[in-house]
Structure to design on (1084 residues):
């Protein structure tokens, strides 16, 4: 694998991340790589792409996300294709996705350009309504009521089953996302190798338990207007009584890693 | 206790409730009572009050809420003073607050006018910011993030203690409310006679447990813009970094009951 | 599939179940089947087997479990091979495993002898210590402290990961068992088609979440003497610091069903 | 308050605790105090009492518990009267009850003999069956099934209410105990100043919520033989269908403290 075209993605509005991006760009130039950024981020000697849309049409070998897990999630969502992502953690950021800290950037780049890494795949999901497709989620998709003075009824179809429950919202999380927002809602931790999803209710009137289901299309319908929230970062509003299909996304996310680890998730939670 | 001035409050937009109101008004006239409604509800031979504001200035002996628990909650909130509320449950409505069904209205009125009832008090809470007071809640006050793409940090002060936690929102519920939305969030059931509150987190990053605290003022501050939602019915938007005080409301709610029961709450939950 | 050798298993100490067994035996004789029971159950014209051990060596085509889910669980455990089990529910018994009620026994037998049924497989697990194998579990294996005045430390190895936690016990449940004892401990519901297990802690000092893991061998070790409890019915005591391996059992359980249903589990829980 | 008679209680079977006890005894002698121990603990120049029974008949001004929270709990249970307890934490012990570490023992004794301390009261509960009284609990009383192959039905009466539920056991915890075993079972944290109890079910078949109730006598009855476990340390076996009454104990526990703190409990849980 030859790595010559690299895009830098940074934490929003962080001067520290921009400074780090300049430093990383310099190190990449020394190694003969072409460096890209996406507007508004501007970096010396790097080509500035206009938009996420242009980003997706550009031939890239790697994305370097500089920030914390939030920045990695954004880079992964922008790169809806399969460009690998490498996370550089800024001081003070937590992260299981971004695991190399900025201090170690030089030795990390040595390993990357020596092809001494492996690629870890993580399954993703996406929501769609008829032919309208929402961006893919690495962690979770939350379908949440907009009007907080009414408790909607959700109808959920999966495999050959159907459920109807009153609740504030419903979350569908991947194994990667099971330690994130889904965990905060009381969901179980799913081993990251499993090809399953967890359906976690948000404030269900009848304390419905989380359901672990096969990674097959799930259909969700609410009788109230809803927000679709992708990885806690990207929000869309939809009308009531629409059939939302949650299904596996065609491209897995790919992470550049230096070592295969066991359950990063448990380490993240302090277990 | 002489009961001569009675206001009727009905479920919003329910023809069935309006018909019931007309029937109840007729029965009340026969008994010589003055009947009131609040605009837009109009009932034959009843005086129509312009607004909740006018309602609060009118001398009343009783409110009859026709609908389900939602209608009772609204009547109680409008009557921020201590006018007793009697709930008449429409067919198909659940309710622990509205416990007499419409079929039994005649015998119920007989008992009411014979003074054969008791008044049950329920403590209420209200939120305030400086001198701005929000309406009182019988069940709970929810302080919830508005921007769903950010997880705010909440600072919560109670008794002599202080907590800081990242979460989507925070709920303070009374014993009456502990079987409602707070229960859906995983909170415990509080015996209705206790003078305590339960602080239940909404999707806390670190799975903070619910806290049961003395009924003393609690101070909540979020570093993000928030909604204050009173009894799941009335919503207000506030700016970040404001000190919200939750405290006991000066007037308890009062319910007209025919028999003292034990824990209505457990019956409601099916235990 | 020819069905000629059938064993009857009944609820322990239930006269009603014994009477039902006599009735069922008579119906089976009419159809030319050989009927067996296991001592101490004795039924007219049926051959009484001495023990579970003899049962397992007898060639059988079907077991009919008369009682509730507990009786089905016992029949399945005794038949550690793959003899199909059909559950007949006594009046007043709940059950998702035993789904045909005794009233319908005649039409049920008609369908069975007309080969108008399907066989549903359910994966099972078993515990072992070195070469010592414990009986298979359809629902769950619980490893629980014996001395209730001490909180042991459990070490749990699964896939390539390892956890150490202090708790009263640890449960490993199958999808079939996820609606049983594991649910009572706060575990998620697993779709019955998944090839996964859920590790649910019993009173963990640090509120460890349930973990959903691949159906691969799991190793559990406690630093205190423990009980191994198979499907809540069969108990074994073991010493501290022994490596207990939980793995998939070589024979799935097989249930005779008249129709394929979706998630029986949710129906069981009232959802 | 004159402090002249002091008993030392140490962690069971800990040489480190015994050495510490000898050191503390020496420091106490210098200050002219009479030092006691309870057999089998023997300390130079200290009077060895035969038993807990003799301990309770001895006039004492203070108990010093050397170990962790477990040792404090034991000292408190032995001293069923109101002798204050001071906890000295050994290196490596956690504790919210024992808050002074052994390193600080000299300055601690200076403060104690200068009367520069305060006494903190903590309410306790005890179980009784007819006239048989079990020892008092500072944290919790657990009533748990003995036969693990059967799920008993518990009947619980409190205030004017009654519940019947199938579960493995039932715990009644004080506010002090709400961060202990009750927390591990999913119970809420109760503010330590509240005069309430929390009833937390152990593996309830129907996911009954924890109940927070007034500190009034609670009656518990199981249809199976049970263990009564006091503070996780002291166990008693009782027959099925006996009425166990849990009520406030006549003597609160008293702790010698150097400063009043807010919610020690939350600090303990890392919040």
């Amino acid at each position: 694998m030859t790595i010559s075209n690299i895009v830098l993605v940074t934490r929003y509005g962080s001067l520290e991340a921009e400074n780090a991006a300049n430093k990383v760009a310099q190190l990449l130039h020394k190694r003969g790589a072409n460096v890209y950024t996406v507007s508004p981020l501007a970096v010396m000697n790097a080509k500035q792409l206009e938009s996420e849309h242009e980003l997706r049409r550009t031939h890239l070998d790697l994305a370097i996300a500089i920030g914390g897990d939030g920045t990695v999630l954004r880079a992964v969502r922008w790169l809806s294709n399969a460009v690998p992502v490498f996370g550089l953690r800024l001081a003070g950021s937590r992260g299981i996705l971004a695991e190399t800290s900025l201090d170690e950037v030089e030795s990390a780049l040595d390993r990357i350009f020596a092809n001494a890494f492996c690629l870890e795949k993580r399954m993703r999901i996406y929501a769609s309504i008829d032919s309208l497709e929402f961006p893919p989620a690495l962690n979770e998709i939350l379908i949440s009521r907009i009007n907080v003075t009414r408790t909607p009824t959700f109808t959920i179809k999966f495999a050959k089953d159907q459920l109807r429950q009153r609740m504030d919202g419903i979350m569908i999380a991947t194994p990667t996302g099971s330690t994130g927002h889904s965990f905060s809602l009381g969901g179980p931790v799913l081993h990251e190798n499993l090809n399953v999803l967890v359906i976690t209710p948000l404030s269900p009137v009848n304390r419905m338990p989380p359901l672990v289901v096969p990674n097959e299309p799930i259909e969700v319908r609410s009788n109230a207007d809803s927000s679709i929230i992708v990885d806690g970062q990207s929000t869309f509003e939809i009308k009531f009584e629409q059939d939302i299909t949650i299904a596996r996304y065609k491209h897995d996310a790919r992470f550049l890693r230096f070592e295969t680890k066991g359950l990063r998730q448990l380490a993240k939670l302090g277990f």
Notes: Residues 117 and 258 of chain D are 5 Å apart (CA to CA). The mean pLDDT of chain D is 92. The longest strand of chain D covers residues 161-173. The first helix of chain D runs from residue 15 to 30.
